[in-house]
């Protein structure tokens, strides 16, 4: 029987979740699920200085929101209390310190690691020296040769120390990356990596290797930035005599100008995108394409479809461009497919933010129940055009304002005069006034106005452009019939009167 596929997402709780990390989580999830394997969430919190309170909770929340369900690891019960579940725990590295200590002792015993007592000042000097000579920054190995007695003496004197990997100085380290192919590195350029820091905590490298082994991770899928660390990890696996897992490094995320995706050029935190009103499923769909594509024209993938289709050989080596226009397009496609009630619920907080919560003052006829129904009609106007939920306030503000503000020139269609436009609006007014309140529907408005245009020999633009502007005050908006229906007879007539006055 072949070995069970097990992948892990191993973020460090250092603040917001980077979109690149969400991609790592997604690909690990898809690969595991595609192969009927397990997906694990492990927290790598061995860097105490970079720990940010609340980041674990935040992480778990985002993974829940996006639907990337993991089998083992750290969970939030009832969305609050952090708990751990699974047979390979603890899944938080700071709770595994004794385990690392035990394994590093084994390395020391077998001469694969050594105590290093060099002071910060000495290391600093060494680094400066290397910089000046333009040689690669690496430990010069001074403590590699300390005798057992010397080490014991220094330990007895409580001299601060770190524990380093004793890398071989000859030969090569090789591995086959599932995305980058064969990688071969000369051992002499691999640094004697610190494994245990002076605070007694393991470094990422040691903890990562020990945990991936003990948690029986079969495939390590992570960002390209970890590729240079992999030879050190391979040396560790070999030193322990452990089976080496498969590695797959994912291409860098780039800005449209091909520079590395960074905060300076825009948002990089998943939280920022969710806050802006991107739907979690649309964001995942977009992220899927950052490094992988189905090699067909298909663009919209549900999580199930992604699981069915995703494979590692399909991942590119070249950097993936983070193109927010594409994200907008995908998000718009998801919004168009949404149930109107659900969409409206999502829009409410953004309407409030835009100051449109005071519906009742402008719309005294609406009770709290009818308010929601009315909002649904308003949102339906924009469902086709909306790219992200956060735009909704701006898009529909015109419905709620008491008095529109626009230049009267905007009412003019092509070369028409103010007077001609005014006359057309008056004609519209007279027709609409005759419609019963209950018949003020989109279809009816359209019929009445088309009849009017035919009777009077008026071209569509000459009548519908000024009417649309009179109702919205905007250069671009949904059409006048839909808007007319949502505004209702009284407001429509009021806005036309206002436009006619402007043109006098
Ligand atoms: N803790 C590392 C990170 O924050 C994990 C790297 C890995 O997956 O090995 O990205």
Can you give a write-up of this model?
By secondary structure, the protein is of the alpha/beta class. The chain has four domains: 6-93 and 253-324, Rossmann fold, CATH 3.40.50.620; 96-250, Rossmann fold (3-Layer(aba) Sandwich), CATH 3.40.50.620; 341-400, no CATH class; 408-502, Orthogonal Bundle (Arc Repressor Mutant, subunit A). The chain is 46% helix and 11% strand. It contains 20 helices and 13 strands. It has helices at 19-34, 55-66, 97-109, 120-133, 148-156, 204-214, 230-240, 270-275, 280-288, 303-309, 324-337, 340-353, 359-362, 368-382, 392-400, 418-434, 442-456, 460-472, 480-487, 489-502, and strands at 6-9, 38-41, 72-77, 81-85, 113-116, 162-165, 172-177, 181-186, 194-196, 219-223, 246-250, 253-254, 320-321. The strands form five sheets. Strands 1-2-3-4 form a four-stranded mixed beta sheet. Helix 6 crosses helix 7 (230-240) and helix 16 (418-434) packs across helix 18 (460-472). It starts with 5 loop residues before the first strand and ends with a helix. The relative contact order is 0.08. The model has no long low-confidence stretch (mean pLDDT 94). Glutamic acid (GLU) is lined by residues 10-12, 44, 204, 208, 222, 226.
Q: What hetero molecules are bound to the protein chains? A: glutamic acid
CATH architecture of the largest domain: 3-Layer(aba) Sandwich
- Quaternary structure type: single chain
Secondary structure tally: strands? 13
The end-to-end distance, rounded to whole angstroms, is 86 Å
Mean pLDDT: 94
The CATH fourth-level homologous superfamily of the largest domain: HUPs
Q: Structurally, how many domains make up the residues? A: 4
Order of strands, widest sheet:
1-2-3-4
- The number of distinct helices, counting runs of at least 4 residues, comes to 20
CATH class of the largest domain: Alpha Beta
As residue ranges, the low-confidence spans are none
What is the percent of helical residues? 40-55%
Shape: elongated
- Main structural class: alpha/beta
Range of strand content: 5-15%
What does the radius of gyration come to? 32 Å
At the fold tier of CATH, the topology name of the largest domain is: Rossmann fold
Biggest sheet descriptor: 4 strands, mixed
């Amino acid at each position: 029987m072949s070995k069970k596929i097990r992948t892990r997402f191993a973020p460090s709780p250092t603040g917001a979740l980077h979109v690149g990390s969400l991609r790592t989580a997604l690909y690990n999830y898809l690969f595991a699920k595609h192969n009927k394997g397990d997906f694990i969430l492990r927290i790598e919190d061995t860097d105490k200085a970079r720990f940010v309170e609340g980041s674990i909770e935040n992480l778990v929340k985002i993974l829940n929101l996006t639907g990337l369900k993991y089998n083992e690891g750290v969970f939030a019960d009832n969305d609050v209390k952090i708990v751990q579940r699974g047979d390979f725990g603890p899944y938080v590295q700071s709770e595994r310190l004794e385990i690392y200590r035990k394994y590093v002792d084994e390395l020391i015993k077998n001469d694969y690691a050594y105590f290093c007592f060099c002071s910060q000042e000495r290391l600093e000097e060494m680094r400066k020296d290397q910089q000046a000579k333009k040689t690669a920054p690496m430990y010069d190995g001074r403590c590699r040769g300390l005798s057992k007695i010397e080490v014991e003496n220094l330990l007895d004197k409580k001299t601060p120390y770190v524990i380093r990997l004793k890398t071989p100085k000859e030969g090569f380290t090789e591995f086959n990356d599932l995305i980058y192919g064969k990688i071969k590195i000369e051992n002499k350029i691999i640094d004697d990596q610190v494994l245990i820091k002076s605070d007694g905590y393991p470094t990422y490298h040691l903890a990562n290797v020990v945990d991936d082994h003990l948690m029986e991770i079969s495939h390590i899928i992570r960002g390209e930035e970890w590729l240079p660390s992999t030879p050190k990890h391979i040396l560790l696996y070999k030193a322990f005599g452990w089976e080496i897992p498969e590695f797959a490094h994912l291409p860098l995320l780039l800005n449209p100008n091909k520079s590395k995706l960074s905060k300076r050029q825009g948002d990089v935190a998943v939280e920022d995108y969710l806050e802006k009103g991107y739907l979690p499923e649309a964001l995942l769909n977009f992220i899927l394409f950052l490094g992988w594509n189905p090699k067909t024209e298909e663009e919209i993938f549900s999580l199930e479809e992604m699981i069915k289709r995703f494979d590692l050989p399909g991942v590119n080596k070249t950097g993936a461009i983070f193109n927010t226009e594409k994200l907008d397009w995908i998000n718009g496609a998801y919004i168009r497919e949404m149930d109107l009630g659900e969409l409206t619920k999502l829009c409410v907080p953004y309407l409030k933010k835009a100051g449109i919560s005071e519906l009742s003052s402008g719309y005294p006829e609406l009770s709290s129940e009818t308010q929601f129904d009315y909002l649904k009609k308003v949102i339906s106007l924009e469902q086709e055009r909306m790219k992200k939920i956060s735009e909704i306030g701006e898009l529909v503000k015109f419905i709620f304002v008491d008095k529109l503000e626009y230049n009267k020139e905007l009412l003019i269609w092509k070369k028409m005069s103010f007077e001609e436009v005014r006359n057309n609006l008056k004609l519209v007014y007279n027709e609409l006034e005759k419609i019963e309140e209950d018949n003020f529907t989109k279809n009816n408005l359209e019929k009445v106005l088309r009849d009017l245009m035919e009777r009077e020999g008026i071209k569509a633009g000459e009548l519908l452009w000024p009417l649309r502007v009179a109702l919205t005050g905007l250069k671009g908006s949904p059409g006048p019939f839909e808007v007319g229906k949502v505004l209702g007879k009284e407001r429509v007539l009021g806005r036309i009167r206002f436009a006619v006055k402007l043109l006098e």
